[in-house]
Write a structure and sequence with these properties.
By secondary structure, the protein is α/β, with parallel strands linked by helices. It contains eight helices and seven strands, in the order E-H-E-H-E-H-E-E-E-H-E-H-H-H-H.
C-alpha cells in the first residue's frame, strides 16, 4: 500500500493505478477542478502526502499546474507519452501496470519555499544540449524529459522543471550522454 494518495484525472485512471499498485486516489474530474477536490488534496498532503499523476498531454499539465500551485510540496509521477497511448488516445488509463510502476518509482518532488533552489541547470546548458533554438529541440526535450523523469515541456517550462525538481548538473549530463549515445545507435 502506497503511503501517499495519488491525484488522477478520472475513474479510468484510478482503475489503471489500482491494477499496478495498491493505492488510494483522488479524481479531479477533468481540468475543471472544483474547490472541494482541491480541499481534499490539501488535506491528503497534510496527512499522507500527494503524488500528482496526470495524463502526459496539455490538459494533464494544466491540472498538474493547478494542483501543484494550490498544494505545495507534492510529488510528481510522469509517464512518457508513448507509454500512455492507445488508438490515438493519450492517458494514464492506457498505460501498462509496468509503466505505471516505473513512473511511481521515479517520483520527483518540487522544491518548496525554504528548501533552497539549486537551479544547477542553466539556460546556457539547455542551449548547449540542443534543447532550445535547435532544429530538433522539441524532440530532444521529449527524450531528455523522459530520461530525467520530468516529462515533456516547451523550452521555458523545461528550464522551470529542471529548477523546480532540482535536477543536478550530474543528472543532466548523465541524461544528455545517454540520449546522445542512444541517438548514435538509432
Amino acid at each position: 500500500m502506497m503511503k501517499e494518495i495519488i491525484v488522477v484525472e478520472g475513474k479510468d485512471d484510478t482503475v489503471a493505478i489500482k491494477r499496478a499498485v495498491e493505492a488510494e486516489t483522488i479524481e479531479t474530474g477533468g481540468s475543471a477542478i472544483g474547490e472541494a477536490v482541491l480541499k481534499r488534496v490539501e488535506l491528503a498532503q497534510q496527512r499522507r502526502g500527494v503524488i500528482i499523476f496526470t495524463d502526459p498531454d496539455h490538459a494533464g499539465e494544466r491540472i498538474r499546474k493547478i494542483v501543484a500551485q494550490r498544494v505545495p510540496g507534492c510529488k510528481h509521477a510522469f509517464l512518457p507519452q508513448e507509454e500512455a497511448l492507445y488508438k490515438g488516445d493519450i492517458g494514464v488509463e492506457n498505460a501498462s501496470p509496468e509503466a505505471i510502476r516505473r513512473a511511481l518509482a521515479n517520483l520527483r518532488t518540487e522544491a518548496t519555499e525554504g528548501s533552497g533552489n539549486l537551479a544547477e541547470v542553466t539556460m546556457d546548458d539547455l542551449m548547449q544540449a540542443g534543447l532550445l533554438v535547435h532544429a530538433q529541440a522539441s524532440e530532444r526535450r521529449l527524450k531528455m524529459g523522459n530520461l530525467l523523469g520530468i516529462g515533456y515541456a516547451n523550452g521555458k517550462q523545461f528550464y522551470k522543471r529542471c529548477s523546480t525538481f532540482r535536477i543536478t548538473q550530474e543528472e543532466f549530463q548523465r541524461a544528455l550522454r545517454t540520449m546522445e549515445s542512444e541517438g548514435e545507435h538509432s
